[in-house]
Amino acid sequence: MPITLYDLAGADPALRFSPYCWRTKLALAHKGLTVETIPWRFTDKAVLAFSGQGKVPLIVDGERVVFDSWAIAEYLENTYPDQPSLFGGPAGRAAMRFINGWADSTLHSGIARMVVRDIHAVLAAKDQAYFRSSREAALGATLEAVVEGREARLEAWRALLTPVRLALRTQAFLGGEGPSYADHILFGTLQWPRCVSSFALLAPDDPVAAWFSRVGALYGGLGAGARTV
Amino acid sequence: MPITLYDLAGADPALRFSPYCWRTKLALAHKGLTVETIPWRFTDKAVLAFSGQGKVPLIVDGERVVFDSWAIAEYLENTYPDQPSLFGGPAGRAAMRFINGWADSTLHSGIARMVVRDIHAVLAAKDQAYFRSSREAALGATLEAVVEGREARLEAWRALLTPVRLALRTQAFLGGEGPSYADHILFGTLQWPRCVSSFALLAPDDPVAAWFSRVGALYGGLGAGARTV
Question: I need a labelling partner for A8 at 20 to 30 A (CA). Which of A20, A48, A159, B144 fits?
Answer without folding.
Answer: A159
